[in-house]
Amino acid sequence: MAGKVAMLSTRVCTECAVRDRALCGALSDDELVALNSIGARRKVARGETVIWSGDESIICANLLDGIMKLSASTSDGREQTVGLLYPADFVGRLYAERAGFTVTALTDAELCVFPRAKFEAVLHDHVRMERLLLQRTFSALEDARGRMLSLARRSATERVAAFLLDMTDRVGSAGCRAVESGPVTFDLPLSRGQIAELLGLTIETVSRQLTRLRTAGIIALPGLRTVTIRDRAALEAQADAAE
Fold this sequence. Notes:
Layout: H1 2-14, H2 29-36, E1 40-44, E2 49-51, E3 59-65, E4 68-73, E5 79-85, E6 90-91, E7 102-105, E8 109-115, H3 116-125, H4 127-153, H5 156-170, E9 176-177, E10 184-187, H6 192-199, H7 203-215, E11 219-220, E12 226-229, H8 232-239
Antiparallel strand pairs: 1-8, 2-7, 3-6, 3-8, 4-5, 4-7, 9-10, 10-12, 11-12
């Protein structure tokens, strides 16, 4: 019976679209069985909040599909977008009684959700898994610090160009191409106001930079949130001045 449960549990993870990139991809069969015993799939609608900043930290999760945002409230009550979560990213805050950020779906999304206390217990019993998660956390922290440093050094043009490149790599794979090597078209998961918050710019500045890139023939804007990358090399040139 135990062997059958193990087969079912590992099969679920094998069929997961993000297994190769998520924490689960580095786990043994025994570790996968332990994790699957407490996990459950959950679909989240666009605009739905799954974690509120300051609330009791009850759950954590792996993001399987979709894009979510991390946000915090400023002293004057405004919401500030501080980061994005993509498929294979870890959601939630372990070893903390309260959630640090609000987590909201920017698109329809799917999560593999775990009760935080039970997840911590599994980590306690599987030291290697705990170490792997710690390594991923440090890597994400270093990436965030690198982005903050890069953002501080970049001009408005460079920030918007770099953002579009990141979106192309993160979201563009779900977009469409007329031909294999042709321009990629995709829908941005953020409004221009949210992009401005994330990049530390005003909405007007973001709009001006997008218009400038469109006028230069580097991108096209066929819809309010739809972007076509017409010349990736030129977009990279716009973004790398601060590198």
